[in-house]
Amino acid sequence: MRTHGWAGSPPVDDSEALARILAAARQGIDQHGRAPRLAEVARELGVSRATVYRYVRDGDALLVELAAAETGPFIQRLTTELAGEADPARAVVRAVLFVVDRLPESPYLAIAFAPDGQNRAARTASITEPAAQAFAREILKAVEVDWVAAGIDERRMTFLAEHMLRLVQSFVLDPGDPPRHGPELEEYLNWALVPVLTTSIQADAGGREPHDDEL
């Protein structure tokens, strides 16, 4: 790790350097309500952009780092909210509803889903990156659904995680006019998703191999 710059107070190691970068990024979000540019983060820290690039490769990588710190607490709140929900289709609906309605409470996680006027295409593409997919899969695995019994194998779990992410991003980018939230959004999701997911899940479950205890 290089120690010049940093407004005269260099970090002791790479971990502290990254922590300072993330703290400066959070400060930028708090002040401006949008994703910070790496140049702004560098200016806040008193370092060059090249120094910041040593720790985060680009703006999307910075957002991933910010979101990662909030993923655990957010999923814990979701798990509490969905406790006892064992129906696969309803669990997906309630998970999407929770994420859309509660994202504003986690601003450093929400910013990863928000539109970016400077690089909208890159932000949209990031929804299918491994970190985003891992977030969605953690949500699915946190609910009390026996996905194997429902016929959802790892490949289908990947499909379902991506579908959830695309739904969430759609409602974040365009919440509707007037915006749908709470019961109105739940009614829409129940109508649009539950029949389709139930049919698909039943078809998958019908074609799975029976468990030993079912023979």
Cα gyration radius (Å): 20 Å
Largest sheet: none
**Shape designation:** elongated
In helices, the fraction of residues equals 55-70%
The computed structural class is mainly alpha
Number of alpha- plus pi-helical segments = 10
- Percent of residues in β-strands: under 5%
Number of domains: 2
Overall residue-averaged pLDDT value: 86
The residue ranges in which pLDDT falls below 50 over 5 or more consecutive positions are 117-122, 210-215
- What's the number of extended β-strand segments? 0
Written overview of the protein:
By secondary structure, the protein is mainly alpha-helical. It has two domains: 1-56, Butyryl-CoA Dehydrogenase, subunit A, domain 3 (Up-down Bundle); 66-209. Helix content is 64%, strand content 0%. The longest helix is centred in the last third of the chain and has 25 residues, at 182-206. The radius of gyration is 20 Å and the shape is elongated. The chain starts with 13 loop residues before the first helix and ends in a 9-residue tail after the last helix. Residues 15-74 form the HTH tetR-type domain. InterPro entries: Homeodomain-like_sf, HTH-type_TetR-like_transc_reg, HTH_TetR. GO terms for molecular function: DNA-binding transcription factor activity; transcription cis-regulatory region binding. Pfam families: TetR_N.
